[in-house]
Design brief:
By secondary structure, the protein is α/β, with parallel strands linked by helices. It contains 6 helices and 17 strands. The protein has helices at about 15-30, 50-55, 65-75, 160-170, 185-200, 255-260; strands at about 1-10, 35-40, 80-85, 95-100, 105-110, 120, 125-130, 135, 145, 150, 175, 205, 210-215, 220, 225, 235, 245-250. The strands form 4 sheets. Strands 1, 2, 3, 4, 5, 8 and 17 form a 7-stranded mixed beta sheet that branches. A 6-stranded mixed beta sheet has the order 9-10-11-12-15-16, with helices on one face. A hairpin with a 5-residue loop joins strand 6 and strand 7. The chain is globular. It binds N-(4-carboxy-4-oxobutanoyl)-L-cysteinylglycine. N-(4-carboxy-4-oxobutanoyl)-L-cysteinylglycine (KGT) binds near residues 41 and 155. Pfam families: CN_hydrolase.
Amino acid sequence: MARVAVGQLTSTASMAHNLAQCRVLVRKAVQSGAKALFLPEASDYIASSGPETVSLVRPIDRSEFVLGLREEARREKLPIHVGVHEPGLNAAKVKNTLLWINELGEITQRYQKIHLFDVEIKDGPVLKESNSVEEGAEILPPFDTPVGKVGATICFDLRFPEIGIALKRQGADIITYPSAFTVPTGKAHWEVLLRARAIETQSYVIAAAQVGQHNEKRVSYGHSMIVDPWGVVLAELGDTADEPEIATAEIDHELLRKVRTEVPLRRRIDVYPEI
Ligand SMILES: O=C(O)CNC(=O)[C@H](CS)NC(=O)CCC(=O)C(=O)O
């Protein structure tokens, strides 16, 4: 059994402010006895426009946010999974990146979001992530951590079961969906998608989420969640943003084995393609 924590915050355009909020989450995670802390997509900053997103970006090795979190991880011996931005190959764009920072404060894994959120919802959010973000082109193979084998994705990737199934096939025990979901899509889809991904992959799902008002234009749904391989919601945060909050749950490798043994999902790859 290993305890994990999801952290929930409201990132703004101020990296210093966001780092301060994440330091609070680190303190709370350490106090809870968690062996790893999972933070949301874009924890380093959320800007109010594509050009502002690009203007704020720093290389990972010169980002005060990333350097500060690495120092926290090292001091507390606490691995941290966190979404940030990094410069794109094209200087007019950024990458939407997930980092694994180990207990020595080293960045050992990096994933670049492969599905970008381009939507135009009538009377709802209009967001064109691809205007300012470059899409990734590969799945990061699941990697060993003190809490289990982690398969990383980001936010909108949640709507594509293929990536979750591919990560499970490659050995993931835990699939992560660090997010900044919009309120209308979150209300309609967030929990059902997370539970579906947990049930169909028979894996733990850890989804740290942004919450509340980031700026005059952006609000996030919150409801960070940890779901077990049977689809049970083990821990959930709300939608209030008064202070950075964590929720924790135990990762039980015996339960993973039990669910996968009792309900074998033998895929008919003679009928449909293997993912
Ligand atoms: O903008 C940044 O800096 C950080 N990135 C995000 O917030 C991204 C792209 S706008 N948000 C999502 O993918 C929400 C998906 C969603 O809400 C859904 O699938 O319904």
